[in-house]
């Protein structure tokens, strides 16, 4: 079974602080994604990546940066965290362009910005 | 642009069925996926459809009409444990590997 691991599981940050959410996958998938999930909005795509060194803007990229230093790792960076970024963040991996349209999700990171 | 819409809530009765609807608009449809998400957990893949018609997978079946921008997930012989949120996601051919999710439908199965 494919494995996607996120860290930390829970995070409390202060407004204006820097937050880094990490994601590791052992599936050798090319594509990785960062979504946030809020009540009433479902999953919204922040950034995604086609492979090491690649980052693409999703539907709501403002206030976020992403980094894909290797096939296995994909980070989401909040340089100046704001309370509106309080949410649950999910990382996922998959090869949706390879004919296998299944995403594997991590367990999520609950971020609270005070 | 691209939009994926789902009703927020659905209620049904144990032993019967539930149909979770999804409508979408996209300039380059390349397939639609369904995921189940239990409270406090990550989404889990259920099914992927790209061809019109009904795809019967037992407890979960999916239907797609590309001309109408419409899909549904059909759950039969409902059990209480089927209570969860069900998310549909559309893959846009013009946007590489970008998957856009709907808001999800929270299904409640009552005895």
Portion in helices of chain B:
under 10%
How many strand units of chain A?
A: 11
**Number of DSSP helices of chain B?**
0
Gross geometry of chain A: globular
N to C succession of SSEs of chain B? EEEEEEEEEEE
> Could you state the order of secondary-structure elements of chain A as H and E?
EEEEEEEEEEE
Question: How would you portray this structure in words?
Answer:
The complex is a heterodimer of chains A (114) and B (111). Chain A has no helices and 11 strands. Chain A is mainly beta. In chain A, a hairpin with a 6-residue loop joins strand 5 (42-49) and strand 6 (56-57). Chain B has strands at residues 3-5, 9-13, 18-25, 29-37, 44-49, 53-57, 60-65, 70-75, 84-92, 99-101, 105-110. Chain B is globular and about 45 Å long. Helix content of chain B is 0%, strand content 59%. The A-B interface holds A 31, 33, 35, 40-45, 48, 50, 56, 58-59, 90, 94, 96-97, 101-108 and B 6, 8, 31, 33, 35, 41-45, 48, 87, 89, 91, 96-104.
Give structural attributes:
heterodimer; A: 114 residues; mainly beta; seven-stranded mixed β-sheet; 11 strands; 0% helix; 53% strand; B: 111 residues; six-stranded mixed β-sheet; 59% strand; globular
Helix-strand blueprint:
The complex is a heterodimer of chains A (114) and B (111).
Chain A: E1 4-7, E2 10-13, E3 19-25, E4 31-38, E5 42-49, E6 56-57, E7 65-67, E8 75-78, E9 87-95, E10 100-105, E11 109-113
Parallel strand pairs in A: 2-11
Antiparallel strand pairs in A: 1-3, 3-8, 4-5, 4-9, 5-6, 7-8, 9-10, 9-11
Chain B: E1 3-5, E2 9-13, E3 18-25, E4 29-37, E5 44-49, E6 53-57, E7 60-65, E8 70-75, E9 84-92, E10 99-101, E11 105-110
Parallel strand pairs in B: 2-11
Antiparallel strand pairs in B: 1-3, 3-8, 4-5, 4-9, 6-7, 7-8, 9-10, 9-11
